[in-house]
Specification:
Number of strands: 16
Distance between the termini: 38 Å
Radius of gyration: 21 Å
Structural class: alpha+beta
Number of domains: 2
Number of helices: 7
Largest sheet: 5 strands, mixed, barrel
Helix content: 10-25%
Shape: globular
Strand order of the largest sheet: 1-2-3-5-4
Length: 367
């Protein structure tokens, strides 16, 4: 398969082991096909890259225009007071864009309409059980207590059922951070990526007092029951996004036993202070309720959000450029896992591959 540079822009960040046939959709991509693709409307302004659809009540005051959602969230809107006045106090549905996943302070409204639920309106299926919204239960005295962390109670986790725990984290006891590459076939182009945090003794404990090897943060498409992922549908605001937490053991075992895959860790070359800050930033953003936010294959995926996290820790002169052509095209070296690894190694942010984690090395402890 021959891939030109523009084709590479679409071969990015796959949140789960997608069926092999989904990659056939990418075999014959060229500039003409890319231009014709629905949902590939790149933002005119690089500041707005994350799509949202929300329902709620519009309110105006001296501080600006806001939408209150039914689940209690409040978003400030980039919407003229005159236009907002038509909907003040009314229930609406909006389509909007945020700057990026770590900056939801303002949503730029692209469409707004009054919303009245219709009799017999279809309720969407529940989300697939594999992922739950992480929650911060406590954050006092420097310790973090996180709920909805996926774990396993047996050596081989069941294929279609999941166990969950509460995790107590001591950021000052962080040991190392790893950028993990999860290749898919064809491995030359396809991969998922996520972060793993290791700790000194006592730094990570579950609800039973056990100390897992490490904690994993994986940013994935939040699909519903009966919904499947493909990189092309990921361009069309087809499913949500979630920052999912699990133990390293559970994630690795599920990958190897049920998905027949393997994992490639790369150490992140940060100082202890940077690692602790990265952990805290990661947990805070994992706990953000992203209902209404859409996964996007290019600009809101598993990999570019990890680099956004890195940029929150790195000094300004070391931060990673997210846009290669300002205002037009996202930098493939910041969004495609296989290119990101090389890019970060050249910058000195990632070290050499630690060891391949497969069936023979599954119980290897990350230092």
């Amino acid at each position: 398969m021959k891939l030109n540079a523009l084709s590479f822009a679409l071969l990015v960040a796959f949140p789960l082991a997608a069926p092999a046939q989904t990659f056939s959709e990418l075999e014959n991509l060229n500039a003409a096909r890319i231009a014709e693709m629905p949902g590939l409307d790149l933002p005119a302004d690089k500041s707005w890259g994350v799509a949202y659809t929300l329902k709620g009540v519009i309110a105006r005051n001296e501080a600006g225009v806001f939408i209150n959602t039914a689940d209690g969230r409040l978003f400030k809107l980039d919407l003229s007071s005159a236009k907002a006045g038509k909907f003040d106090g009314k229930t609406v549905v909006i389509e909007a864009e945020a700057k990026q996943a770590d900056d939801l302070a303002l949503l730029k409204v692209t469409r707004i309409a009054e919303y009245t639920p219709k009799a017999g309106e279809v309720t969407p299926p529940p989300y697939q059980a594999r992922r739950r919204q992480a929650v911060i239960i406590d954050n006092k005295g420097g310790d973090l207590v996180l709920g909805n962390v996926r774990t396993m109670l047996t050596e081989v986790p069941p294929a279609d059922s999941y166990d969950w725990t509460t995790m107590t984290i001591k950021p000052e006891l962080i040991k190392n951070v790893y950028f993990i590459k999860k290749p898919f076939k064809p491995e030359i182009v396809a991969a998922h990526s996520f972060l793993v945090f290791t700790f000194e003794k006592g730094g990570l404990r579950d609800a039973q007092g056990k100390e897992p090897m490490a904690l994993a943060l994986s940013i994935e498409g939040r699909t519903r029951e009966g919904q499947s992922f493909s990189p092309v549908t990921g361009l069309r605001n087809s499913f949500g996004i979630i920052w999912s937490l699990s133990t390293w053991e559970e994630y690795a075992a599920r990958t190897i036993y049920h998905e027949k895959g393997h994992l490639v860790p790369y150490p992140v070359n940060f100082t202890h202070e940077q690692k602790a800050k990265l952990l805290q930033e990661s947990m805070a953003l994992a706990a953000v309720d992203r209902e209404g936010e859409f996964y996007h294959t290019i600009r809101n995926n598993c990999t570019n959000n990890l680099l956004i996290l890195f940029n929150r820790v790195l000094p300004a002169d070391k931060q990673i450029k997210l846009w290669t052509i300002p205002y037009m095209v996202y930098n493939v070296k910041a969004t495609m896992p296989l290119m990101v690894v090389t890019n970060l190694q050249e910058r000195g942010i990632l070290g050499a591959e630690f060891t391949d984690i497969n069936a023979a090395t599954l119980n290897t402890r990350l230092p």
